[in-house]
Amino acid sequence: MKKLIVTISILGLSLTNVSAQDIHQNEVPSVILNSFQKSFPKAADIDWEMKGNYYEVEFETGFLRDDHKAFYSKDGKLVRHEEEFSKSKLPKTVLASIKKSFPGYRTDDVKRITEDRKIIYHVELKNISEKWKVVFDAQGKILQKIAD
């Protein structure tokens, strides 16, 4: 059943990507631009897309040019924010869970995702023979684990 749900989710995401349409910033409604600029005043290298009913913006921030992706509803509400960052910024609870559940694995491709005021962490974990995509909550609990 879990595999079916994951397969349907992946299929749904791929169909969403097919319907994505690049748009110029002047085509983005002002209510969304104002909300974005207020939330991310130092954003650079900004690219907008329309994905279904949401406006998606990809951008970078900071000295290290951290990658971000944000989704806005048509009324300007930030509904999802994804931020890539280094392993060192993971909460201690998540790091402890990785050390306990995946000893000897290398941490790669770390993302913090905020949606509906809830934060989760997507982490790729690799060793010589295996690769896992794992989702943790802020307390370090494993929410999802998929072999890659």
UniProtKB/TrEMBL annotation:
Leader peptide range in chain numbering: 1-20
Domain Putative beta-lactamase-inhibitor-like PepSY-like, first and last residues per copy: 53-143
Protein's UniProt keywords contain Kinase: no
Keywords on record: Signal
Domain of life: Bacteria
Protein name stated in the entry: PepSY-like domain-containing protein
Species whose genome carries this gene: Chryseobacterium turcicum
The organism's taxonomic lineage, starting at the top: Bacteria, Pseudomonadati, Bacteroidota, Flavobacteriia, Flavobacteriales
